[in-house]
Specification:
alpha/beta, 7 helices, zinc, 16 strands, 319 residues, 6-stranded mixed β-sheet
Length: 319
C-alpha cells in the first residue's frame, strides 16, 4: 500500500460483514420468479489511506444494518418485518474488531452511500469519527420524502450534528435545501459528471450517483497502478442489472402508478449507464498515468454471489 515512484497514491480496501436481509426478487429485477426471496449482505468497506507520518487514515464506507432492530423508528420496524430473516451479527463494528480495529478509536471517517435502514448502521459505535453524506441527506432525515419515504421512517438524530459534513449540491442539482458544509468541489472524472477527489491525490473519489435515494453516493478507489474498485452501494440490487441481463423492476406504487426501489428510476438508469463502461476490460474511461490499461472491479452492496466467492477479501483480508 502507498505511493509508487511516480507519486501515485493507492489505498487498501477490505470488505466488511455488516448484516444481511432478505429481499423478494420481484421488487428488484425484471422477469423474476414471483416467489423467490434471497438473503443478501449489506456490505460495508474499510478503506485505508497512507499518510506521510505512517498513520493511515481509516475510512468506512457504509455501516450496514443495526444489530438492534428496536433502535429503528416504529414505522421502519414495520417495513423490516417484511425483510426477514435478517442476520444482525457480525455487524460492521464486530467486523472491524475481528480485524483488530476499535471502531470507537481507530476509524477517522465514515461515508454513508445513503441513509436507508440497511446502510445507516449504528453511528454511535463511531464516537470519534467524522461523518460525510451526500447532498440533501440531512434534509431527508429531518423531513422524509413523501409519499414513498415518509418522515416517520427516518431518525433526524441519526448522525452527530457536530461531526457530520454534507457534500454541496452539484451543478445539476436543483435542490436548495442542502448547504455546502465541506470544502470539496464536484468535478468530472471517469465519465461521471460529478466526483470529489476526497484526499486530493487521486486515490479516492466520491461519485455523485443519483436515482436511488436523495444524497446517494458511490466510491471509486485506486488500489494499484492498474486496478481500481468501484463501490456501488444501491446503484442496483443485483449484479445482473449491471451487465444488462436484467432490468430494474417496476411495481404498483400504491398511488395509481408504477415505481421501482429507486426514488427516480430514470435517474438511476442514467447512473447505471455511467457505471457500465467500468465493467469493460480494459476500462475505457480510466487509464494509468502512463496510459496503461486499467481494470475496475464493481461491487454493489447486496451482491450475495460476490460475498460467497470472496471470503478471503474480508477484513483483515483485502481486495
Amino acid at each position: 500500500m502507498g505511493s509508487s515512484g511516480n507519486d501515485e497514491v493507492y489505498v487498501t480496501v477490505s470488505a466488511l460483514e455488516a448484516g444481511q436481509l432478505t429481499l423478494p426478487e420481484k421488487l428488484f429485477i425484471t422477469d423474476a420468479d414471483p416467489e423467490k426471496r434471497a438473503t443478501v449482505p449489506s456490505l460495508s468497506f474499510l478503506i485505508q489511506h497512507p499518510s506521510e507520518d505512517g498513520k493511515d487514515t481509516k475510512l468506512v464506507f457504509d455501516l450496514g444494518l443495526k444489530r438492534d432492530l428496536s433502535k429503528y423508528p416504529p414505522a421502519q420496524q414495520a417495513h423490516i418485518a417484511n425483510r426477514q430473516p435478517t442476520i444482525l451479527h457480525p455487524d460492521c463494528a464486530d467486523s472491524l474488531r475481528t480485524g483488530g480495529l476499535d471502531p470507537a478509536k481507530d476509524i477517522d471517517i465514515v461515508i454513508l452511500s445513503h441513509v436507508h435502514w440497511d446502510h445507516e448502521g449504528t453511528p454511535d459505535d463511531f464516537p470519534n469519527s467524522q461523518f460525510v453524506v451526500g447532498s440533501g441527506t440531512l434534509h431527508l432525515l429531518a423531513n422524509g420524502a413523501p409519499p414513498h419515504y415518509p418522515k416517520e421512517i427516518f431518525n433526524p438524530d441519526l448522525l452527530p450534528k457536530d461531526r457530520t459534513r454534507e457534500l454541496p449540491p452539484n451543478s445539476g442539482d436543483s435542490s436548495t435545501a442542502a448547504k455546502s458544509q465541506t470544502d470539496h468541489a464536484w468535478k468530472p472524472f471517469a465519465g461521471f459528471p460529478n466526483t470529489v477527489d476526497f484526499f486530493d491525490d487521486g486515490s479516492v473519489y466520491i461519485v455523485d450517483s443519483p436515482g436511488h435515494l436523495f444524497g446517494h453516493v458511490n466510491l471509486l478507489a485506486r488500489l494499484s497502478h492498474t486496478k481500481w474498485a468501484y463501490l456501488g452501494g444501491d446503484c442496483c440490487h443485483d449484479p445482473r442489472i449491471l451487465t444488462g441481463e436484467k432490468g430494474i423492476a417496476l411495481y404498483d406504487d400504491g398511488h395509481g402508478g408504477l415505481r421501482s426501489v429507486h426514488v427516480d428510476t430514470e435517474q438511476a438508469r442514467q447512473t447505471l449507464s455511467k457505471i457500465g463502461p467500468l465493467l469493460k476490460k480494459p476500462c475505457p474511461v480510466i487509464q494509468g498515468d502512463g496510459g496503461e490499461p486499467v481494470e475496475v472491479e464493481v461491487i454493489v452492496a447486496h451482491d450475495k454471489g460476490w460475498r460467497e466467492k470472496n471470503r478471503d477479501r474480508f477484513f483483515p483480508g483485502t481486495l
